[in-house]
Amino acid sequence: MGRIAYVNGRFVRHAQAAVHIEDRGYQFSDGIYEVWAVFGGELADPAGHFTRLARSLGELRIPAPMSDAALRIVLAETVRKNRISNGLVYLQVTRGVAPRDHPFPDPPPPPAIVVTAKAVDPIAAERRAANGAAVVTLPENRWGRCDIKTIGLLPNVLAKQAAREAGAVEAWFVDDLGLVTEGASSNAWIVDADGFLRTRDIQANILRGVTRDSLLSLIGELGLAVDQRAFTPQEAKSAKEAFITGAGTLVLPIVKIDGAIVGDGSPGPVAKRLRALYIHNARREGV
Ligand code: PDD
């Protein structure tokens, strides 16, 4: 983790950074977050994340802690102060501090904001992508508003831990219809047996991933066949390729699902091409 964090209006040493014990994020998970990938010191897909941030805040009726312009400066400063070239920026906004009581505090307290940044080793990330990663599937057990990027992530935490214990990087949730919704911190994709790129449509109870959206635009420009249609774990296991997308993983090839080998067991050409293109574009666009 970087050495400087932004907490409620001040840049402070990470080791000393703290929030109030009655912060509603701490007590009720009453807050939202965003994560941006950073390339060459610049935020990837800034607009998409700002749009989703405003939407998440709006859905929970938490006021924006500051203007987008001011927030951009805070994010850029956090990146700069921590000397991050490649990495991640984390933003969390909660409803603020108030004596513990479930309904919204009245009058509303100012929202509480925290920004941190950490470096990611691009060589290690590329090595992982070159090898491909494993996922496991688990029953969907999250609430019905996964479109809001809330900090209430306990099912995701438990799913990730189960994945780790199974030697996998990600867990895919499978709903009551037997269809994959998404990963615990990423969107799920396959290249199906007919060569169609498939990912769950956003009417489903999933997070509308910003990386997913960017990739859909890229796929459109490339003229690749895409079908926003759900798939089963079995379809994924017999797919040509599988991969996940997210600010943390970018485009990460998946070569094993519940222990079954996908394709020939190595990252497929489509996933590799999309990863390279996504990173190339993200580097070029920046803030
Ligand atoms: N997770 N689905 C879920 C449940 C997620 O938590 C995420 C992101 C995504 C991908 O969204 P995006 O492409 O906008 O990053 C999909 C972040 C990275 C996290 O929790 O750390």
Describe the protein:
With 287 residues, the protein is of the alpha+beta class. The chain folds into 2 domains: 4-120, Aminotransferase class 4, branched-chain amino acid transferase, N-terminal domain (D-amino Acid Aminotransferase, Chain A, domain 1, 2-Layer Sandwich), CATH 3.30.470; 125-286, D-amino Acid Aminotransferase, subunit A, domain 2 (D-amino Acid Aminotransferase, Chain A, domain 2). The chain has 8 helices and 15 strands. The strands form 2 sheets. Strands 7, 8, 9, 10, 11, 12, 13, 14 and 15 form a 9-stranded mixed beta sheet that branches. A 6-stranded antiparallel beta sheet has the order 2-1-6-5-3-4, with helices on both faces. Strand 3 and strand 4 form a beta hairpin. It is globular and about 55 Å long. The site of N-(5'-phosphopyridoxyl)-D-alanine has 14 residues, from helix 6 and strand 13.
List the helices and strands and how they pair.
Layout: E1 4-7, E2 10-13, H1 24-28, E3 31-39, E4 42-43, H2 46-60, H3 68-81, E5 87-94, E6 112-119, H4 122-131, E7 133-139, H5 154-165, E8 170-174, E9 180-183, E10 187-191, E11 197-199, H6 210-222, E12 226-227, H7 233-237, E13 241-246, E14 250-257, E15 260-261, H8 269-285
Parallel strand pairs: 7-8, 7-14, 11-12
Antiparallel strand pairs: 1-2, 1-6, 3-4, 3-5, 5-6, 8-9, 10-11, 10-13, 13-14, 14-15
Order of helices and strands: EEHEEHHEEHEHEEEEHEHEEEH
- CA-CA gap between termini: 22 Å
Bound molecules: N-(5'-phosphopyridoxyl)-D-alanine
| Helical percentage | 25-40%
- State the total count of DSSP E strands: 15
The number of helices is 8
